[in-house]
Specification:
The chain is of the alpha/beta class and 247 residues long. It is built from seven helices and nine strands. Strand 7 and strand 8 (229-233) form a beta hairpin.
Length: 247
Amino acid sequence: MSNATTPATGATIRPEEAAHFGKLAAEWWDPKGSSAMLHKLNPVRLGFLRTAIDSHFAADPKALKPLAGCRALDVGCGAGLLAEPLARLGATVTAVDAAPENIAAARAHAEAGGLAIDYRCGELGALGLTGFDLVTSMEVIEHVADKPAFVAGLVATVAEGGLLVISTPNRTAASRLLLVGAAETVGMVPRGTHHWADFIAPLELSDLLAEAGFAMGNPKGISWSPLKGLHVSDDLSLNYIVTAVRT
């Protein structure tokens, strides 16, 4: 598929953010290490993503490789926690991250698992990536320097008829208390990971996507309860995940 949109070239990477996550690269694949929360969050995101894939691409819900023949791009890939499942779902995967340490860890892990993933390091808008059937960016937009430029860069990579999926913390009193205050205090996530003022509310994200020519679907929350653990819900107060398509 082709895409006539010109990628954005504005700087979105914050060097201090890239350095922060780069220092965590060696532990990224340790489910009990500094990225433990991402390991818990990943199955929930994948469940939402699989439903979105089946719906958007009219895939068989029982198919093992619903993305066969599709090109997928994961933006802000870290060490590949989402990129590898996308490859196992049949996609030809490209993944991008700002931290070279993360890309090195991602390449090593994919190679050890026999997965051919095209990992790139750098500014998304400068990489010239276009024509992807599926583009994902999970827990990334809250870390970028220029959100409009980042969203423009994301949508520029999506092919005609393609699907964009974004997840991010919501900017609420609850997220300030729990995702920043409590989670970093008790060590659930490394200190300095989250900056509450940079969180983006669903309506704000919808406006940014609309300005870039995309329509956002109904967001779903990612919540926690003692009985269900982390799960998709209608409660958007902490974290949400959403699809978007070209209008």
